[in-house]
Amino acid sequence: MQSLKLNELKVYGKAMKIGEWIWKIVSEWQYYERDTLGKQWVRSADSIAANISEGYGRFHFKENKKFCYYSRGSLTETQTWLEKANNRNLVSDERYEFLKKELNILLKMLNAYISTIGPSNNS
Predict the structure, then answer these.
(1) pTM for this one?
(2) Domain ranges for the chain
(3) CA distances from 4 to 8, 81, 93, 112, 120 (A)
(4) What CATH number matches the domain at 12-116, 3.40.50.1400, 1.20.1440.60, 1.20.140.10, 3.30.450.20?
């Protein structure tokens, strides 16, 4: 049985926050930019938290881990879209550096969370 509620997981909270930041940025763009790069960036960013959530709700720890790996893949995709947005002058260098740093922090948090899922190796 899990001792923490989903909303108490710091990794989940950070993923949710990043998704909201990206949504806000993309919502300011023109139609073409939102329809092409923007939709994919928002979807990948939202998928980070969504997969953490789905894994958390699964019955078996192996399923939880699997969805956290999907989440990590979405995080990496989100980093790619961030770089593309910056290269295309859709995101300022300041926002780019901020989000790049936050995504790297989230990646470390997610890797640490993954390592806690399942039976302890010290048994």
Answers:
(1) 0.93
(2) 12-116
(3) 6, 32, 37, 16, 17
(4) 1.20.1440.60
